[in-house]
Amino acid sequence: MNLFVKTAKGLICLACPRTCNLQEGKPYCGVRSAGEGKGVCEVYGLVSSLANDPIEKKPVFHYRPGSLVLSVGTLGCNMRCLGCQNWEIAHADLSSYEWQLRRISPKELVAAAKKYSEGVAWTYNEPTVWAEYVHDGAVEAKEAGLYTVVVTNGYYSLQTFKLWEPVIDVFRIDIKGYRDETFARFAPGTRAKVVLDNVVRALEAGKHVEVVTNVMPGINSRDISQIAKFLAELSSEIPWHITRFYPQFKLTHVPPTDVEDLVAYRETALSMGLKYVYLGNVDVAGAENTYCPSCGNLLIKRSGFTVEEMHIVGDKCPHCGKKIYGVFGG
Fold first, then answer.
1. Can you spell out the DSSP letters for 93-128?
2. Residue 258 DSSP label
3. Residue 330 — very low, low, confident or very high, per pLDDT cuts 50/70/90?
4. What DSSP string describes 221-255?
5. What is the C-alpha separation between 13 and 245, in angstroms, rounded?
6. Where is 159: in which H helix or E strand?
7. What's the pLDDT tens digit per position in 208-233?
8. Neighbours of 7 (CB within 10 A)
9. Rounded distance, CA 274 to CA 271, Å?
10. What is the pLDDT of residue 303?
11. CA dist., res. 4 & res. 93, Å (int)
12. Over the stretch 193-209, which tens digit does the pLDDT of each residue have?
């Protein structure tokens, strides 16, 4: 699927809802261009970050826990959050980026993954900006028997979703706010409904979905109960990772999230019916473990990004037989 379209007004990028006119200058993400009258993903195959990570680091807790995933990122982002934790690459200017970029083809990426990993994840910056590379790599990965993950801000177009849908197994989506007014505080121009609709779309397509909300005090903290309600009404099975914010980039004046607040958010979400609610970027006893929502039996014990105990049998609780959301084992 072509993510560019020629119109009377110019060449329009369809990768995300911003629909930038590439003939009017640099797009919002900074890494897609009109080229010589033809749409170009300037970072196709240009890798800024590459690492073999535990799947838990994404964070994804209910898909192949304990496995390793080759994680790959480039430059650019279509949300450009003021508190971005990876701002060095997400906000980077391709023309002046000082660090070396490696060109890795989809085949080379998957060949590397097959040596040490069980999957490939497009992460670190927003995968939408090089959606075509994600697709091509995912095709290779599926043919090689590897699982595929996008760690995304959820601000991608229907066209991008259709490109990814046949070959992406896991959509790890950020819900950073529930209202446009909230996004305006840290990612101007972002429409909340697009992100929420993409969570629904991925779930309805049968994809494995996990959601992360990084709680920024005074910025998106008022949206937490609304996000919890949205997820509980959509599916009580969706794992929700509520993570602690640390001052970064242009939000250094915002304090870290209060740990007691995080604990309270988790308790509220569980009381609203969500079955799997985790805390991240903070050390709270048991808050990263998976428990059976039916009988309370400990199913997965985690320490940091390490799975210390795994008690799920197939996809069921060994104590009461409750089916657990996710994919476990090989």
1. -TTT--SPPEE--HHHHHHHHHHH-SEEEE-SS-GG
2. P
3. low
4. GGGHHHHHHHHHHH-TTS-EEEEE----TT-TTSP
5. 32
6. helix 158-164
7. 999 999 999 999 999 999 999 999 99
8. 10
9. 7
10. 93
11. 22
12. 999 999 999 999 999 99
What's the burial of 105, exposed, middle or buried (CB within 10 Å: 0-12/13-18/19+)? middle
4 Cβ contact list (under 8 Å, min separation 6): 11, 12, 13, 14, 22, 38, 39
Cβ atoms < 10 Å from Cβ of 120: 28
Q: How many other C-beta atoms lie within 10 A of the C-beta of residue 327?
A: 15
How far is residue 180's CA from residue 72's CA, in Å, rounded to a whole number? 30
Burial of 218: CB neighbours in 10 Å, binned 0-12, 13-18, 19+: exposed
Report DSSP state, residue 64: S
Q: Say how far apart CA 293 and CA 290 lie, in whole Å.
A: 9
Instruction: Report whether the peptide linkage leading into residue 59 is cis, meaning its omega lies within 30 degrees of zero.
Output: yes
Name the residue with tokens 């995080």. Answer: 262
Say which DSSP state 76 is in. -
C-alpha–C-alpha distance, residues 15 and 19, integer Å: 7
Residues in the chain: 330
Q: Is 171 helix (H, G, I), strand (E, B) or coil?
A: strand
- Spatial distance between the Cα atoms of 45 and 33, rounded to a whole number of angstroms: 15
Which domains are present in the chain?
Answer: 43-293 (3.20.20.70), 294-330 (no CATH)
Separation CA 187–CA 83 (nearest Å): 9
Taking alpha carbons only, the member of 11, 15, 44 closest to residue 161 is: 15
